[in-house]
Design a protein that fits this description.
Chain B: Its cofactor is [4Fe-4S] cluster. The complex is a heterodimer of chains A (about 475) and B (about 400). Chain A is of the alpha/beta class and about 475 residues long. Helices cover about 40% and strands about 15% of the residues of chain A. Chain B has two domains: about 100 residues, Glucose Oxidase, domain 1 (3-Layer(bba) Sandwich), CATH 3.50.30; about 240 residues, Alpha-Beta Barrel (TIM Barrel), CATH 3.20.20. In chain B, α6 runs parallel beside α9. The chains are: A alpha/beta (about 475), B alpha/beta (about 400).
Chain lengths: ~475, ~400
């Protein structure tokens, strides 16, 4: 190696002097051999046990690639350099920034009526004719006022049910009212209708054309799987969904409709078929979800009919299939992985409502029920249908926006949902990628915090995160696909 | 095209000459109203009667003794000189220096040769001496520049060492050339003082960018390259302060033997910590100054770092950052990188080699620094249009 001219000093003159100091970090086992260590802002390094021990004992040798990576990713600092602390603070602030702009998602249960009679349904459905299960216009107007009190620069109003298209007049009213108010507020305002699409018609599509309205529908997989659980008297729910999807794309464009799947025991051996059904319908995105433990699902004990290990097996197989589709030239994203990867690799916070710390309750999403009651989340409203009112924040007739958002109910729930202070979460390496689910733990363990050793939520999160990190580390072709989802 | 901006072969044709160097603006219109002539230097081609009142005269044809003061024969030199160009004439030294060319898309202004870094590959080695006259001169010529000037570069040395004079300078550009983009090359260290960053921001220049070199993700790498302990911390804090006050920042990373190993790690570091910077330039060496004296210690053939370069560009591009590759010829770059390559070398020090004449990609290629002749990549070879049917494919000749 050739030398620099005499007036220059060589590298050794700039090597850090003295011992290194550790920055805040957490580590967990990745597999038999390896550990993953993460810092508060979600950067991670995978290392073997002896290296981890050396790091923690301050015995790691400077000048090695591992030392350099740990220093670059702010697990340690040394010498006179302290700028790591400035950068960590900045990154922490960037990730937490969105909390100040609270409540981007406002859900309106415009009716509880539904034309389906699904056994697992999360909401307590009512017969179609009973219009006393519709939201009143007065409540809707009051809820729209609440919407614009949120400081969030982006607002999404989601219409839910029941089957919201059974009360389309109210949807139309809310859209027009919100747009009119937004001329003054200037938010990035969009609408979503969560519908089974059986009641879709030209009049509805014509109205949607002039507004920023998107559809979200259910598609559980192939026709037999979908129809088995989505009972539609006098018809096929699957047929209605796929026909509706095509009609919406024709009328409003290819991105105007998204589909969500729900996993049931019948789905577990069929994940490839489910993914392929999404491909067949022209989707480039799928969210492999687990069955939620609310509503009829809990009552009928469906949730206990399969273990989280079975779901993880289902998920891993599905993810492999999706990665292979990408490698074969069909771009397809798995949304759960995409959310987690974004939390791992992007410096900004992720807005996914169900994985926040503090929880997204009220501050990421809020729901106005058909009867005017306000809940901290969709699942919180379902728990209320089962008699547990823990997540009821107030009522549109009785409470002001300030009273709702500063209520002891909400503030206490948020306080209890900050992972940094929760037992077993506070020292978990996966904490920066995770979130709180107080409703799940209340429903399954009777306590909003829950004991994570017995939590299938925790088990699922850890299994999926371990799997994703191992893919990123060990499988170069999978890594390229996963990176393209961030 | 390589352009010479300085010469020492003026021949005075008039007995009466200014004793001191002076500045003026080139004008080719002898009929310019007399009242507008005092700062103009009349450039004439052939022998003619020289009207009075101009600051000086340049003539391309030899004539006898001139009646006007400050008449100089320049012959065929500086063939590009034209209306609006600003020059310095040093009669004692027979010197002419072109400071500003109106027709150039990018004029670069040296404001000091002092610097608190001492980079191992510095193309313009610092000189520790009082050179305040440089910025004085720039203050003087700003009002003479065309308001249509697209972009001005401020370079050093380290412009940050000018302190409040730099702030005043930017303010002067804002007032006289509000439509001109201003690009300042600075090591950023002075802006570790937040008050200084704020003062610069408060000027409110409409189109200001600071190009700040950062040579690694670790202090030991950066501090070594710039030969200054603590520089990494100061530069990072400077970048944070500037961005905190909404001043646009471009990072400049020079690929050389000491920095290439952590180039992908650098990209990851930037995407994670400095995502808010406005542009990242990954640059090849300019083989001048220290880069030449340290050539064997710092040189690496671009062919030997394409993997690292491609990985870094992919990381930054995926993070949706603006990333460019400067000072690299297309023939040495992996084809996936071609869309990031910019023709970045200033025209006055830019050239192409003999084989470039046969190259199909020449029009899209940045070419070479004039200084590059001392060492060239093994990969230099013209692209030829493939002689085959189907789509046109560029491939390299053996």
């Amino acid at each position: 190696m050739n030398q620099l001219a005499d007036t220059f000093r060589d590298r050794s003159a700039f090597a850090p002097s003295g011992p290194y100091r550790l920055l805040p970090a957490r580590f967990s086992r990745l597999d038999d051999r390896r550990y993953v260590i993460t810092n508060d802002v979600g950067e991670y390094v995978v290392l073997e046990r002896p290296a981890l021990q050396a790091l923690l004992r301050h015995e790691l040798q400077p000048g090695t690639p591992l030392y350099a990576d740990l220093k670059s990713r702010h697990f340690l600092f040394d010498g006179e350099s302290r700028v790591a602390l400035d950068l960590l603070a900045l990154k922490y602030r960037s990730r937490a920034d969105r909390i100040a702009d609270f409540t981007a998602l406002h859900m309106f249960v415009v009716t509880l009526r539904c034309d389906h009679t699904c056994s697992y349904c999360q909401v307590s459905r009512q017969m179609e004719e009973k219009s006393r299960f519709d939201m009143s216009q007065a409540h809707a107007d009051r809820a729209v006022e609440f919407v614009f009190r949120s400081p969030s620069p982006a607002i999404k109003i989601e219409f839910q049910g029941g089957e919201p298209l059974l009360n389309f007049d109210l949807i139309r009213h809310v859209v027009l009212r919100a747009e009119s108010l937004n001329r003054e507020h200037g938010r990035d305002l969009v609408f979503v209708i969560a519908s089974n699409l059986t009641r879709l018609n030209d009049e509805i599509l014509d109205f949607c054309k002039g507004h920023r309205i998107y559809f979200s529908t259910s598609l559980d997989g192939p026709a037999d799987l979908h129809d088995e659980r989505r009972a539609l008297p006098r018809g096929s729910s699957y047929r209605a969904a796929v026909d509706g999807i095509q009609r919406i794309r024709e009328a409003l464009g290819p991105d105007a409709v998204a589909a969500l799947m729900t996993t049931s025991p019948g789905s577990l051996p069929r994940v490839r078929e489910i993914v392929d059904e999404y491909v067949k319908q022209g989707f480039h995105s799928i969210f492999l979800r687990s069955l939620s433990p609310y509503g009829f699902a809990v009552r009928t004990s469906l949730v206990r009919r399969y273990d989280v290990d079975d779901w993880v097996k289902f998920y891993v197989e599905g993810l492999r299939h999706i990665i292979d589709l990408n490698l074969s030239g069909y771009p397809m994203r798995e949304e759960f992985a995409a959310i987690l990867l974004q939390k791992m690799f992007a410096p900004v916070g992720n807005g996914y409502v169900d994985l926040q710390s503090p929880a997204g309750l009220g501050i990421a999403g809020i729901i106005y029920n058909y009867d005017g009651a306000i809940y901290a989340s969709d699942e919180g409203r379902m728990l209320a249908e089962m008699g547990d009112h823990t997540f009821r924040l107030g009522h549109l007739d009785e409470d002001s926006f300030e009273e709702v958002m500063t209520s002891d109910t909400l503030v206490d729930l948020l306080k209890d949902s900050m992972l940094e202070g929760l037992p077993m979460c506070s020292d978990c390496a996966f904490m920066p990628y995770c979130g709180s689910d107080p409703v799940f733990h209340k429903a399954t363990q009777g306590d909003v915090i829950g004991h994570k050793a017995f939590s299938s939520f925790c088990k699922k999160q850890m299994a999926v995160l371990r799997h994703l990190i191992a893919l990123m580390e060990d499988d170069a072709s999978a890594r390229r696909v996963l990176q393209s989802w961030i | 095209m390589l352009i010479k901006l300085h010469g020492r072969s003026l021949r005075a044709l008039s007995p009466e000459r200014s004793p001191e160097p002076f500045l003026g603006r080139v004008c080719t219109n002898p009929a310019l109203p007399a009242a507008a002539r005092s700062r103009e230097i009349l450039l004439v081609e052939g022998p003619c009667e020289l009207p009075g009142g101009f600051r000086a005269y340049l003539t391309r044809s030899e004539t006898g003794v001139a009646r006007q003061p400050n008449v100089f024969f320049i012959g065929a030199e500086f063939p590009f000189l034209g209306d609006g160009d600003i020059i310095r004439i040093h009669p004692e030294r027979s010197g002419l220096t072109v400071l500003y060319r109106r027709s150039s898309a990018f004029n670069s202004m040296l404001v000091t040769e002092r610097c608190d870094n001492y980079c191992v590959m510095c193309s313009q080695p610092p000189k520790e001496r009082d050179d305040g006259w440089l910025v004085d001169e720039l203050f003087e010529i700003i009002p003479m520049m065309s308001p249509e000037t697209p972009e001005i570069g401020i370079t050093g040395g380290e412009p940050g060492l000018l302190g409040s004079r730099l702030v005043d300078l930017v303010d002067r550009f804002r007032r006289f050339l509000p439509r001109t983009a201003l690009h300042i090359l600075s090591n950023g260290r002075a802006f570790a003082d937040e008050k200084f960053a704020l003062a610069l921001a408060k000027v409110g220049h409409p189109d200001l960018m600071l190009g700040i070199p950062l040579y690694g993700d670790l202090p030991e790498v950066h501090d070594f390259v710039v030969q200054a302990r603590g520089a990494f911390d100061q530069t990072i804090r400077g970048i944070l302060n500037l961005k905190r006050h909404r001043v646009r920042v471009e990072l400049r990373f020079v690929v050389q033997r000491d920095t290439v190993e952590r180039l992908p790690a650098f990209a990851r570091f930037v995407a994670r910590n400095l995502l808010f910077v406005d542009h990242v330039a990954l640059m090849g060496l300019e083989l001048m100054g220290f880069a030449r004296s340290n050539l064997d210690a710092i040189w690496i053939d671009p062919l030997d770092y394409q993997r690292e370069l491609a990985e870094a560009v992919e990381i930054l591009d995926r993070a949706r950052m603006h990333v460019s590759i400067y000072n690299h010829q297309l023939c040495v770059l992996d084809p996936v990188l071609h869309r990031f390559a910019r023709a970045s070398i200033s025209d006055w020090k830019n050239l192409y080699l003999e084989e470039c004449a046969r190259c199909e990609a020449r029009a899209r290629c940045g070419g070479f620094f004039a200084s590059s002749v001392v060492r060239r990549s093994r990969g230099i070879a013209p692209f030829a249009i493939a002689e085959q049917s189907g789509p046109m494919v560029a491939q390299r000749e053996d």
